[in-house]
Design goal:
By secondary structure, this protein is an all-beta fold. The chain has no helices and eleven strands. The radius of gyration is 13 Å and the shape is globular.
Length: 124
């Protein structure tokens, strides 16, 4: 079992930066790939980024490539999402997820555990 708690969301102006954190409980954190998704009201939850258990591979949605960076610290049981050059269209609730093991990393059903989400609002 893994429990996930996101933090670091908030209100920022366009062009600014935020760093989201996702703290995980459970001894098996380091064995899970970790992902970030985001969702706006009335729409599906969309893939943002994923990092493999070792941190050796990362994948990003085209919409955030070059602006966002996912990383992890297995010693701290934490995964991060550094978001730079933020745009109003990045406004969403951001969710941390654990469990992808080799299927379609951009599909929500590939992940077993989810956090409660943190709101990111980018003003123009």
């Amino acid at each position: 079992q893994v429990q996930l708690v996101e933090s670091g969301g908030g209100l920022v102006q366009a062009g600014g930066s935020l760093r989201l954190s996702c703290a995980a409980s459970g001894r098996t954190f380091s064995s899970y790939a970790m992902g970030w998704f985001r969702q706006v009201p009335g729409k599906e939850r969309d893939f943002v980024a994923v990092i493999t258990w070792s941190g050796g591979s990362t994948y990003y949605a085209d919409s955030v490539k070059g602006r966002f960076t996912i990383s992890r610290d297995n010693a701290k049981n934490t995964v991060y999402l550094q978001m730079n050059s933020l745009k109003p269209e990045d406004t969403a609730v951001y969710y941390c997820a654990a469990g992808w093991s080799g299927g379609s990393y951009y599909r929500t059903y590939e992940y077993d555990y989810w956090g409660q989400g943190t709101q990111v609002t980018v003003s123009s």
